[in-house]
Amino acid sequence: MEPVTFEVAAGLTAIDTFYGGRERYTAAYLLAADEPAIVETGPTTSAEHVVAGLDRLGIGPSDLAHIVVTHIHLDHAGGVGRLARVFPRATIWVHERGAPHLHDPTKLVASATRLYGETQMASLFGPVEPVPAERIRPLAEGDQVVLGGRTLDVLDTPGHASHHVALADSVTGSVFTGDALGIHVPDVPVLRPATPPPDFDVELAVRSIERIRARARSGIVLFSHFGPVTDVDRICDLAVRRTRGWAEVVRVALQRTDDLDEIVTLLEEEARRDAETGAEAQIDLAHFEMLSSVRMNAMGIVRYWKKRAEREAAEDSGRQPES
Ligand SMILES: [Zn+2]
Q1: What predicted TM-score, i.e. pTM, was given to this entire model?
Q2: Is the pLDDT of residue 100 over 60?
Q3: Residue-wise pLDDT tens digits, 288-311
């Protein structure tokens, strides 16, 4: 497959990773700088496309200086180990909570295998190669990745995952959003929340969306799935509304059922309502299933409400006056 690359802002170029063999579905980004960097790698199955895209953009094996990932989910960072071998001079930057799992992916692979099964693991992601610990730099709120001519400011943005950062580019004001705003693929007027287990948290997710909104007002947001969106306020409003909307459907359902299939059915109805809002054409919702399946989202939201209820119960019992 020919590499597909396109400039999204000054010095920022998207590279199609062809995740799952699909075009315009998942992206990595090259940042032009004294020390060239990419944000996101895609899974190992995408490595050849990323390498070919970088080659077309003039970045060879000894040129890439930094690999930065928004979080360690395999569709974003599964290919880091492979690319670290191809680009031996690159430093790897990742949220401090994700760093140990890039060095030793055993647990990461085990939990992904529980969710996806062996067959999909192999076909979608491929093997996950470890990254030598000495090449990994942990990221936390307020850190900067200095590239020479531009920097990336780190925003700790939990909600979708506890190990999630957004990255603000100093030159263009653009913000790499990872999965913090959800999934927004071109030509489909739908924003789907991304609320997977085990970390998803509604309140943290909304707070992270608002932080990204405040930061990106003068620029654009760059989705990993997929590409640039310029009307930042509209997309952030939509992200908050969808996240809260899906969470509310599950909260209400949990008052009468624990049955996951039933909850999935209710969320599928919600997804169809989302699609009808403002959409003129029939939309193939199957388009989203590989990136953000309704079942996965349902599992994440159920887990969130249960953890929250347990936490509140514990706080209540802690507050009981002694008698
Ligand atoms: Zn993710």
Answers
A1: 0.94
A2: yes
A3: 777 889 999 999 999 999 999 999
Contacts of 23 (CB under 8 A, 6+ apart): 4, 16
Number of Cβ within a 10 Å radius of residue 99: 19
273 C-alpha vs ligand 1 centroid, how far in Å? 24
283 confidence band (pLDDT: 50, 70, 90)? low
Q: Which of these, 106, 121, 67, lies nearest to 89 by C-alpha position?
A: 67
CA of 316 to the centre of ligand 1 (A): 33
CA of 179 to the centre of ligand 1 (A): 5
The number of residues in the chain equals 323
pLDDT at residue number 321: 64
Task: Give the closest residue to 239 by CA, choosing from 269, 214, 213.
Answer: 213
Work out whether strand 66-68 and strand 91-95 pair parallel, antiparallel, or are unpaired.
parallel
317 Cα–ligand 1 center, Å = 35
Are the C-beta atoms of residues 17 and 28 closer than 8 Å to each other? yes
Prior bond of 228 cis (ω within 30°): no
319 C-alpha to ligand 1 centroid (Å): 36
Task: Give the C-alpha separation, 166 to 143, whole Å.
Answer: 11
Q: How far is the CA of 323 from the centre of ligand 1 (A)?
A: 48
The residue whose two tokens read 């942990």 is 138
Give the contacts of 2 (CB within 8 A, at least 6 positions apart): 52
Distance CA 184, CA 136 (A): 30
Q: Mean pLDDT across the stretch 103-112?
A: 96
pLDDT of residue 281: 52
